[in-house]
Amino acid sequence: MFSPHGPTIRELTVQALSSVERGYDLLAPKFDHTPFRTPDAVLDAVQGELKGMGPFAHGLDLCCGTGAGTEVLRTVCRESVTGVDFSAGMLAVARARVRSDGPPHVAWVRGDARALPFGPVFDLAVSFGAFGHFLPRELPGLFTEVHSVMRPGGRFVFPVGAPPSPESPWYWALLGFDAAMRVRNALWRPPFVMYYRTFRFGDVRRELTRAGFTVEHRALTAFGHRPDGSPCCRLIVATRT
């Protein structure tokens, strides 16, 4: 799960007992050596789909972390790519690892996804692996913010994995993680919001529609299908109409 270059158990414990922002500042130098980083297979699959939709002019990587999604945007956006994150530590790593010679021009902005400091300038926005940091009650506000920074016809695109079945060890692992996180947040301040089982496909589609998006989804066939025939991973494509 972790490489020799990743964080130690002690470092992860200190991170988990910090706020989300401070925790990621601490984890940033070793984040790319943890299983929390979005796998290259997911990034490659999304990039392939985006190339079929584009090209685009201006792209936004929402909650960009160390810039893995920003690198995807660089391949499909012609003019500019902006990465936004509220962790200064993650942005520092992103600046160091992502090529900034353009086009497209690459910019980094420290900001909160729930209060984006932009006008309606983007025709593509992506996000990878960040939605567990938002409570379900925050989704309406989050999606409304994204809608407000998109041009008419702009697309908000992100992958969503199908929840594992109770027969899978991953089901119990994620259930245990979320339960432990709830206990931690009940006993310790500041809270560290990170839940794996709260970002549900039906809720996401409903709240995107309420925010003003037209929503479609596509199967990412590289990840196969479940026994009932549904895809193991979907790509959500929400368009500002």
TrEMBL record:
Classification via InterPro entries: Methyltransf_25, SAM-dependent_MTases_sf
One term of GO molecular function: methyltransferase activity
Oxidoreductase in keyword set: no
One GO term (biological process): methylation
Annotated Methyltransferase domain residues: 60-154
Record keywords: Methyltransferase, S-adenosyl-L-methionine, Transferase
Methyltransferase is among the record's keywords: yes
Transmembrane regions listed in the UniProt entry: none
Stated name of the protein: Class I SAM-dependent methyltransferase
Organism annotation: Streptomyces cynarae
